[in-house]
Amino acid sequence: MAAPGENLRINGERLWESLMEMAKIGPGVAGGNNRQTLTDADAEGRALFRRWCEEAGCTLGVDRMGTMFARREGTDPDALPVYVGSHLDTQPTGGKYDGVLGVLGGLEIVRTLNDLGIRTKHPIVVTNWTNEEGTRFAPAMLASGVFAGIHDLEWAYARRDAEGKTFGDELRRIGWMGDEEVGARPMKAFFELHIEQGPILEAEGKDIGVVTHGQGLWWLEIRLTGKEAHTGSTPMHMRVNAGLGMARIIERVHQIAMSHQPNAVGAVGQANVWPNSRNVIPGRAVFTVDIRSPEQEKLDTMRAEVERAAQAVARELGLSCEIEAVGHFDPVTFDPGLVRVVRGAAEKLGYSHMDIVSGAGHDACWINRVAPTVMVMCPCKDGLSHNEAEEITPDWATRGANVLFHAVVETAEVVG
């Protein structure tokens, strides 16, 4: 594969200015962003990205899930395109970089190639996947999941938000439902640049994370039903307390994750009790257990242990217990050849780097099923993400995008 010269770099100032400009759309209340999928803010962000891509000479395609594909032509019309991207949607209290860095880092590759007059044999396609976050419409990574054949298109259209609005209706409303068949694009490779969303790279003093694997995940929604009663007048031994059951199961989730160290995590991040009144013993509790591991056997063992523990707690307290798997993906092994390309780019550029496992799910985890895929990570301050205080430095962004540039362009093959 023909590669760019090691002295070539992206325009870090331009990348940072683009990140700051996109962050003006859908501002949060504390310095971050609230640009949830298929909102008016999402539509505005998409329009800005479209304008930038067209100014860079790209042609834009949009599929029926609303995913955007900005193509810079290669010299060989029959060569498979090299894809690069991430997502522009955010959490309700999200940061300015989660996902956005990967999309605009991809755009910066195209801009830099244009500046330098460099042609590649393979086309390069910058991608904005719809609904990666999954906050408004569950599950996460919805469009890439349909692209990879994990989800059915009509099933995805029927996903509802908290107000009962469907994904399909909202996609039409904001004007971003394309006519291109989902998954109809063959890929030579897919690259995704992302902030780490964890503290390891910063703690180790590394510029670049070369992502070799992605953790698998189970989301288990547990529904406990007991009996509502007055907190003051119901004797302790006569209570059927769904809130107590939830508390004990949360503790067991922590213990189970700790018992499978290393490479295992678990917690409950979403929890609700009813009637949620100060002086009423909860008669119902619904919460979601999130367990993850890059090891398949360990992941499935943890799931079985959590389910057994939940049923045991429910029996002890006289509660009914229902458990439903509401999210899942297997552990991911990224393409070894592309991993070597990313590692080689970091070494060529003189950046400190380390192999790392992605603790979060990403669109790359689904695309890995249909094309050779790899991820590049840069540090984020204190490992903080999914928070308006999420922060990276311009240097971290630039170094991550430089590695992305060299890896993508080497794969796309410089001509001449």
Question: Would you mind describing this structure in some detail?
Answer:
With 416 residues, the protein is an alpha+beta fold. Helix content is 35%, strand content 23%. It has twelve helices and 17 strands. It has helices spanning 12-23, 40-55, 100-116, 142-147, 153-157, 167-173, 200-204, 242-259, 296-317, 336-349, 363-367, 394-412; strands at residues 59-62, 68-72, 82-86, 119-120, 124-128, 189-195, 208-214, 216-225, 229-230, 265-274, 280-281, 284-293, 320-329, 332-333, 353-358, 373-378, 414-415. The strands form four sheets. Strands 1, 2, 3, 5, 6, 7, 14, 15 and 16 form a nine-stranded mixed beta sheet that branches. A four-stranded antiparallel beta sheet has the order 10-12-8-13, covered by helices on one side. A two-stranded antiparallel sheet has the order 4-17. A hairpin with a 5-residue loop joins strand 1 (59-62) and strand 2. Helix 1 crosses helix 3 (100-116) and helix 10 packs across helix 12 (394-412). The mean pLDDT is 97.
In helices, the fraction of residues equals 25-40%
User: Structural class, judged by helices and strands?
Assistant: alpha+beta
How much beta, percentage-wise? 15-25%
- What is the mean predicted local confidence, pLDDT? 97
According to DSSP, the number of beta strands is: 17
- The best one-word shape is elongated
Q: Counting H and I runs of at least 4 residues, what is the number of helices? A: 12
Q: SSE string, helix = H, strand = E?
A: HHEEEHEEHHHEHEEEHEEEHEEHEHEHE
- Distance between the ends: 12 Å
Q: Uncertain regions: pLDDT < 50 for 5+ in a row?
A: none
Characterize the main sheet: 9 strands, mixed
Rg (C-alpha, Å): 23 Å
